[in-house]
Design brief:
- The protein has about 700 residues and is of the alpha/beta class.
- About 35% of the residues lie in helices and about 15% in strands.
- It has an eleven-stranded mixed sheet, with helices on both faces. Strands 15-16-18-17 form a four-stranded antiparallel sheet, with helices on both faces.
- Strand 13 and strand 14 form a beta hairpin.
- Helix 10 runs parallel beside helix 11 (about 305-320).
- The longest helix has 16 residues, at about 85-100.
């Protein structure tokens, strides 16, 4: 094939992957996923917990758990939310942190989510609970819209469903949006949860399910797919902007292409011509000679029909012209974690991006004897079955990632190695904290438990490490994390002292061993540390003015953070500081799940609801507190409007519905509009007065 080295007709500037987060079978985070891949881990196993008795697959643990309180979601709404939405909220938070973007920053960010599964929506049809949250909880569009709403993203927000190629097709949409200037940053995600056995049956009926429960990509034993589940989130920026900001770049996305088979033997049978076409177009757009590609992450499902077609397409485009002793390396993450369907493409992309970043290629599993229908030598392909390093002398690396949908939509992305450069460091004598001067390291959480968990995570990260610059650590804690209501700061000049204070925060033994809501200063210790704990706005009126001793400026900055006051953090840490990696936020998860005890053929929810008799005061207070997600028995201002108390329009509908069910009455849709405070609603319920509307 003709070498394509200029940029004529290409897709434009490369895009940088600056943040990643994932939760895959056998791996709760990005670091765990990389460890799983490097050791050649196999995360396929029988269903457990909610999936007890299911056939072998790649299952996530604890899919029912979610930190609803952090995201301002009531327990009632959380139970009606598709766990795919919950998973994406948490992973988007972690991906932004990984990109060193505070999750509360908002801005012109686009959201593009690949998904092709609605198991929870199907389950909700069997639930007796149907209310205003059912639509926003299970409609697929809210997989993207929920992220845009919560994080304050104002760019395009879309869910892409092209079947099993959905998440790579979402990447293609994101690239176009960035290059058209519709957004300055893009969040790209893929998600798949296999919550019911019905989905297994559907694939089994197609004849595509592996009876042995293992994926054998390009192998003689290939007998079908193994289902997997999980989610991944990427944060993308134009490369020039990422480099200017000093961002860490995992890899670049040079181009992507999407097409469709447009016919063939059947709706679900892949075609070689279309796959060759999408490959050729992707490398044309990238301006890359296909013969220069080092590795391709295959769609690689391990099916008898799909694998030979994919191999011949690859050989026809990327194998041509290669010497016999330098074949194209190929592999498939599906051998580790199963086929993640709507999230399959992003799982392969995260694996490949991490491989480029670490310059190391993990092994592909379960390949022992080549499929006799695939001439690997003739096609100039080799399945990479051992862990191998990519040496710097090999030159800048270029890789591909393929993902093909069951209905014929094919996607391929071209990834490049990140530019190798050292961050510019100011010369000696420039202003900034000296290495042995105290600096503040900040922590925050939405609860005291979350704060303590953050302190423990950071202490674990720092324990035994001598390569940590506290200025870098402090700058990251101040500028790359959300500042949440419960706050703490440790002012320290040495790692060992910082770790000791963090341990005290984690176990609640700092100072006098108590945790308080107001700011408290434990004072300067013998080791030169100071610990502050509190909430914004809680400064005592008689707080003493700071003195002039060592670390006073750092302590003042720490106190300002705890009290919610603005601080010029670059001035505090100095121009030499560069944000260091911090542990991801410690979510405080609790279980939330649908009530499916009543089937669709059972009594209507209104008929099944218990009849109410009693004082409307307790009813309105209890239901309002529950819908707001507050602790049972929490105080409410009866004369405040429901809007001021925090009820949005969906919460208002949920409150009206709950009151109607509890009282056995049919209430007007304008109930809370006509009676906008708890006191007014209580009085109306006592008197049956709804301003012209009758209770029936």
């Amino acid at each position: 094939m003709t070498e394509l080295t200029d940029t004529t007709g290409t897709s434009g500037e490369p895009v940088a992957v600056v943040g990643m987060a994932c939760r895959f079978p056998g791996a709760d985070d990005l670091q765990g996923f990389w460890r799983l891949l490097r050791r050649g881990g196999d995360a396929i196993g029988p269903g457990t917990g909610l999936r007890e008795g299911r056939r072998p697959g790649g299952y996530l643990r604890d899919v029912e758990l979610f930190d609803a309180e952090l995201f301002g979601i009531s327990p009632h709404e959380a139970a009606l939310m598709d766990p795919q939405q919950r998973l994406l909220l948490e992973l988007c938070w972690h991906a932004l942190e990984d990109a060193r973007i505070p999750p509360t920053a908002g801005g012109a960010t686009g959201v593009f989510v690949g998904s092709c599964s609605d198991d929870y929506a199907l389950m909700s049809r069997m639930s007796p609970v149907v209310d205003a949250y059912s639509m926003t909880g299970t409609a697929r569009t809210f997989l993207a819209n929920r992220l845009s709403y919560f994080f304050g993203f104002t760019g395009p927000s879309a869910v892409v469903d092209t079947g099993q190629s959905s998440s790579l097709a979402a990447l293609d949409q994101a690239l176009g949006s960035l290059r058209r200037g519709e957004c300055t940053t893009a969040v790209v995600a893929g998600v798949q949860l296999n919550l019911t056995a019905t989905g297994d049956r559907l694939i089994e009926e197609l004849g595509a399910m592996s009876p042995t429960g293992r994926c054998h990509t390009f192998d003689r034993s290939a007998d079908g797919i193994v289902r997997g589940e999980g989610a991944g989130v990427l944060v993308l920026k134009p490369l020039e902007a990422a480099l200017a900001a000093g961002d860490r770049v995992y890899c670049t996305v040079l181009a992507a292409a999407v097409n469709n088979d447009g016919g063939g033997a059947s709706l679900t049978t892949p075609t070689q011509t279309a796959q060759q076409s999408v490959l050729a177009e992707a490398y044309r757009r990238a301006g890359v000679d296909p013969a220069a590609v080092a590795y391709v992450e295959l769609h690689g499902t391990g099916t008898k029909a799909g694998d030979p077609v994919e191999a011949r397409a690859l050989g026809g485009v990327l194998g041509r012209g290669r010497p016999a002793d330098r074949p194209l390396l190929v592999g498939s993450v599906k051998t580790n974690i199963g086929h993640l369907e709507g999230a399959a493409g992003i799982a392969g992309l995260i694996k490949t991006a991490a491989s480029l970043f670490h310059r190391e290629l993990p092994p592909t599993l379960n390949h022992r004897r080549p499929n006799p229908d695939i001439d690997l030598d003739g096609l100039r392909l080799r399945v990479s079955t051992r862990r191998r390093a990519w040496r710097p002398e090999d030159g800048p690396l270029v890789c591909g990632v393929s993902s093909f949908g069951l209905g014929g939509t094919n996607a391929h992305a071209v990834l490049g190695e990140a530019p190798r450069r050292e961050d510019a460091v100011p010369g000696p004598g420039e202003p900034g904290a000296a290495a042995d001067e105290p600096v503040p390291v900040l922590l925050s959480g939405h609860t005291g438990a979350a704060l303590r968990a953050q302190a423990a995570r950071l202490a674990d990260r720092l324990d035994g490490r001598d390569d940590v610059d506290l200025r870098d650590l402090g700058l990251a804690s101040a500028t790359t994390r959300a500042a949440l209501p419960v706050r703490a700061a440790v002012v320290a000049s040495a790692r060992t002292a910082l770790v000791a204070r963090l341990r005290e925060l984690a176990d609640g033994t700092h100072g006098d061993g108590t945790h308080r809501d107001e700011i408290r200063e434990d004072g300067t210790r013998d080791d030169g540390t100071t610990v502050l704990v509190g909430r914004p706005g809680a400064e005592p009126q008689d707080r003493p003015a700071p003195g002039d001793g060592p670390g006073t400026a750092a302590t003042a900055a720490a106190a300002a953070f705890v009290l919610g006051k603005p601080v010029d953090w670059l001035a505090v840490y100095g121009p030499r500081a560069r944000p260091a990696d911090l542990p991801p936020y410690a979510f405080q998860r609790r279980p939330y799940w649908l009530d499916t005890t009543t089937t669709a053929g059972g009594p209507a929810a209104e008929d099944a609801a218990p009849q109410w008799s009693g004082d409307p005061l307790d009813l309105v207070l209890d239901l309002t507190v529950e819908i707001l997600g507050r602790a049972p028995g929490a105080d409410l201002d009866l004369d405040a409007t429901f809007t001021d108390l925090g009820l949005d329009s969906r919460m208002a509908v949920a409150l009206r519905t709950s009151v109607a069910r509890a009282t056995g009455r049919v209430l007007p849709t304008t109930l809370l509009f006509d009676h906008p405070t708890p006191a007014a609603l209580i009085e109306a319920l006592r008197s049956d007065d709804t301003k012209g509307h009758e209770f029936r």
